[in-house]
Amino acid sequence: MKDKKIKSEFLFGKKNYRWMLIGLLFIAAGFSFMAGGGSDKPELFNEALYNFQRIRLAPTLVLIGFGIEVYAILLNPKQ
């Protein structure tokens, strides 16, 4: 029985993982912008719940992050 050298390789290249990290940062930033805005007293309404940051910016960042993740998966690291 001959010793066969098995070369293990990662599924993605360094470039792919870098783009995946950037996408995860965008997603994390979007979810952190969505957090908060509640009130301690349920009978009080807080207008901050409907500001630009939570309604427009945060979901846009999350969608951009998901788009970057798809790009990172489909990116060919050998080019």
Please, could you describe this protein's structure?
With about 80 residues, this protein is mainly alpha-helical. The chain has one domain (about 15-75). It has helices at about 15-35, 50-75. Helix 1 (about 15-35) runs antiparallel to helix 2 (about 50-75). It is elongated. The mean pLDDT is about 85.
Characterize this entry briefly.
The protein is mainly alpha-helical.
Number of helices: 2
> Any low-confidence stretches, pLDDT <50, length ≥5?
none
Helix-strand string: HH
Note the quaternary state here: single chain
Overall structural class, as computed from helix and strand content, comes to mainly alpha
Per-chain topology:
Layout: H1 14-34, H2 52-74
Helix pairs in contact: 1-2
List keywords for this structure.
elongated; single chain; mainly alpha; 79 residues; 56% helix
